C-alpha cells in the first residue's frame, strides 16, 4: 500500500495550489497598499505646501507659526 492514496494527493495538490494563489494575491495586495500609501504621502506633501503658500500670502511667516505652537 502506498503512503498516499489518490484522494490525499489531490487534497495536497489543492492545498498547495491554494497556498500559492493566496501568496500571489497577498503580494499583489501588498504592492497596491504600498503604492496607495506613497500616493497619500505625496498628496499630504502637496496640501502642506499649499497651506504654507496660503499662509505666506496672508502674511504669516514660519517664525510666527513656530511661536504659536
From TrEMBL:
One biological process term in Gene Ontology: cellular heat acclimation
Molecular function, one GO term: transcription corepressor activity
Pfam families hit by this protein: HSBP1
GO cellular component, one term: nucleus
InterPro entries: HS1-bd
Entry's family note: Belongs to the HSBP1 family.
Protein name (record): Heat shock factor-binding protein 1
Organism of derivation: Paramecium primaurelia
Source organism phylogeny: Eukaryota, Sar, Alveolata, Ciliophora, Intramacronucleata
Amino acid at each position: 500500500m502506498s503512503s498516499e492514496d489518490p484522494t490525499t494527493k489531490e487534497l495536497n495538490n489543492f492545498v498547495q495550489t491554494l497556498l500559492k494563489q493566496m501568496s500571489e494575491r497577498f503580494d499583489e495586495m501588498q504592492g497596491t497598499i504600498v503604492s496607495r500609501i506613497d500616493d497619500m504621502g505625496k498628496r499630504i506633501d502637496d496640501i502642506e505646501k499649499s497651506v504654507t503658500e496660503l499662509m505666506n500670502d496672508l502674511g504669516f511667516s514660519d517664525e510666527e507659526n513656530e511661536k504659536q505652537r
